[in-house]
Amino acid sequence: MPRKPPVVFPQEQRLLSELGERLRLARKRRKLSNAVVAQRAGISRTTVYKVEAGDPGATLGAYVRVLAVLGLEGDLNLLAADDRIGRKLQDLALEPSPNAKRRKAHPSPIQSREGPA
């Protein structure tokens, strides 16, 4: 019995479709057939078609295998490398809240009330 395909929102489907198209173009630039990519990746030709179509049912492993055959697996290091939102959230957590009361500086017991000696 086939698995139920994952729920994919339109924006995510567009991203997958664009990735698949880039992979298809990369394969064609290298003058490789679907059969050759499938054989080298150790996956079926149907899976290669799914990857190039941006099918959300294709596994991440299949995408990685196709990237590796095309010599593009290093591009995976760029995914989520710059977590701007996470850093902003982290920085916000480090800032004191605007409602926090600031402590007034008290003179230290070593200093006299007349000032330093």
UniProtKB/TrEMBL annotation:
Query: InterPro entries attached here?
Result: Cro/C1-type_HTH, Lambda_DNA-bd_dom_sf
Source organism's superkingdom?
Answer: Bacteria
Q: Name one GO molecular function term.
A: DNA binding
Record's protein name: XRE family transcriptional regulator
- Source organism of this protein record: Sterolibacterium denitrificans
